[in-house]
Automatic annotation (TrEMBL):
Pfam families: MotA_ExbB (PF01618)
Topology with respect to the bilayer: Multi-pass membrane protein
Subcellular location: Cell membrane; Membrane
Species for this entry: Brevundimonas staleyi
Top-level taxon of the source organism: Bacteria
Claim: Nucleotide-binding is one of the keywords in the record: no
Name this protein carries in UniProt: MotA/TolQ/ExbB proton channel family protein
Family: Belongs to the exbB/tolQ family.
């Protein structure tokens, strides 16, 4: 059995799980881009704060939703095929935890980006 790495977990995952992981990665990159745009805009207050605010809570929930979906699929398979050894269940468990961790990482990125933007907005408003 090959070693479980983030890449092998992703490549062996079901299509809905892969879509969730890609969506989380794109969301994190978009958060960084929105933050960079807002910081570079100088004294102009541009949009994007609502996206960052939503990402703070939305990303962990999306990761949790993916993990719950994965767990549901594992339990359906267990009900269909009966007891399985832990080495058969381990990839599915790793996939579920991978989704939770990805959601939390993107949520942390969202929180940090939101703090940066809010600090910049506070400075701009207090100077006016």
């Amino acid at each position: 059995m090959p070693a479980l790495t983030p890449a092998t977990i992703f490549l062996d995952a079901a299509l809905p799980v892969q879509i969730i992981v890609v969506a989380l990665i794109v969301a994190a990159l978009a958060a960084v881009a929105v933050t960079a745009k807002k910081v570079a805009s100088g004294s102009h207050l541009t949009g994007g704060s609502a996206y960052l605010s939503a990402l703070r809570l939305g990303a962990p929930l999306l990761g949790l939703l993916g993990a719950a979906f994965n767990g549901l699929m594992m339990f359906v398979a267990l009900a269909k095929f009966g007891d399985q050894p832990i080495n058969v269940l381990a990839p599915g468990l790793a996939e579920a935890m991978f989704l939770v961790v990805m959601g939390l990482i993107v949520g942390v990125v969202g929180v940090i980006c939101h703090w940066i933007v809010e600090a910049r907005v506070d400075r701009a408003v207090l100077r006016a």
